[in-house]
């Protein structure tokens, strides 16, 4: 969480169509601003929230961030906010937005050139055969069913290369915590590739999990983004604390022993 002076940069809502900034509500809902400057703003997104609007008509995170900026900085009129990237609705963690058109253009270029290092944490239902490794697959998106198909070779032009690295961090009963670093940004990439090797993410029924989670989340968390600031040209590391959820809490002790993840617990 980023603090400016004595103000914790959290935000929340009272209802779908009316925005009210309240410190008590913010703490309960835990929608937090974890990085903010004149060019960028990053949010720790709870599972279940859309990043951008879709056919459901649900209010997306981007609208709440606009309202946060409007209220915090007393801005009249419309607020510019550019969506740089997205994470899936049932996934939690870091989402970054651009506050200026210049920052949006430059951040888009960083993502396109794969100059943003993304680190995820995933709780899976089976231990991978190799404790760490690189997965190479080809992925094609089925737009109608909102699912991707995974192959070990390129079946046709619609299949795009998907690459990630993973490492086993801890195990607890029949669940295992993986660090995942995707090198490409394909739809549902981490979910589909882990499912392909028989290690589905907890709650991700779409890609092989035994059952869904009661709250609809899947146990995949966007833990950090690292990149060179598009305007200031300085290194930026943004980390998002883990969800306050039972299974994530059980793995916090293991993460607290790892220097990179201490801030997340």
What would you note in describing this structure?
The N terminus is likely disordered. A hairpin with a 3-residue loop joins strand 4 and strand 5. This protein has one domain: Pseudouridine synthase (2-Layer Sandwich). It is of the alpha+beta class. Strands 3, 4, 5, 6, 7, 8, 9, 10, 11, 12, 13 and 14 form a 12-stranded mixed β-sheet that branches. It is globular. The protein contains 5 helices and 14 strands.
Chain-wise SSE layout:
Blueprint: E1 3-4, E2 7-8, E3 10-11, H1 23-29, E4 31-36, E5 40-45, H2 61-72, E6 82-83, E7 92-98, H3 101-112, E8 117-124, E9 132-142, E10 147-151, E11 160-172, E12 175-182, H4 189-196, E13 220-228, E14 235-239, H5 246-256
Parallel strand pairs: 7-13
Antiparallel strand pairs: 1-2, 3-4, 4-5, 5-7, 6-7, 8-12, 8-13, 9-10, 9-11, 11-12, 13-14
Report a brief summary of the structure:
With 265 residues, the chain is α+β, with helices and mostly antiparallel strands. It has helices at residues 23-29, 61-72, 101-112, 189-196, 246-256; strands at 3-4, 7-8, 10-11, 31-36, 40-45, 82-83, 92-98, 117-124, 132-142, 147-151, 160-172, 175-182, 220-228, 235-239. It is built from five helices and 14 strands.
């Amino acid at each position: 969480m980023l603090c400016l002076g004595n103000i914790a940069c959290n935000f929340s809502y009272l209802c779908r169509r009316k925005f009210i900034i309240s410190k008590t509500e913010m703490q309960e809902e835990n929608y937090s601003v974890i990085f903010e400057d004149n060019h960028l703003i990053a949010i720790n997104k709870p599972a279940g929230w859309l990043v951008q609007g879709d056919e459901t008509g649900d209010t997306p995170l981007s609208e709440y961030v606009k309202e946060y900026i409007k209220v915090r900085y007393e801005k009249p009129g419309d607020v510019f906010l550019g969506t740089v990237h997205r994470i899936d609705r049932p996934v939690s963690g870091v989402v970054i937005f651009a506050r200026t058109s210049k920052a949006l253009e430059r951040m888009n270029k960083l993502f396109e050139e794969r100059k943003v290092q993304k680190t995820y944490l995933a709780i899976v239902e089976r231990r991978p055969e190799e404790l760490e490794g690189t997965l190479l697959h080809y992925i094609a998106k089925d737009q109608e069913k909102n699912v991707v198909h995974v192959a070990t070779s390129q079946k046709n032009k619609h299949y795009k290369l998907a690459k990630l690295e993973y490492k086993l961090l801890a195990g607890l009963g029949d669940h295992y915590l993986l660090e995942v670093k995707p090198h490409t940004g394909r739809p549902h990439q981490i979910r589909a590739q882990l499912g392909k090797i028989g290690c589905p993410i907890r709650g991700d029924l779409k890609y092989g999990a035994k059952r869904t989670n009661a709250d609809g989340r899947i146990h995949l968390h966007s833990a950090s983004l690292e990149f060179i600031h598009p305007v200031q040209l300085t290194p930026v590391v943004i980390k998002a604390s883990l969800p306050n959820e039972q299974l994530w809490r059980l793995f916090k002790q293991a993460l607290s022993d790892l220097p990179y993840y201490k801030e997340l617990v």
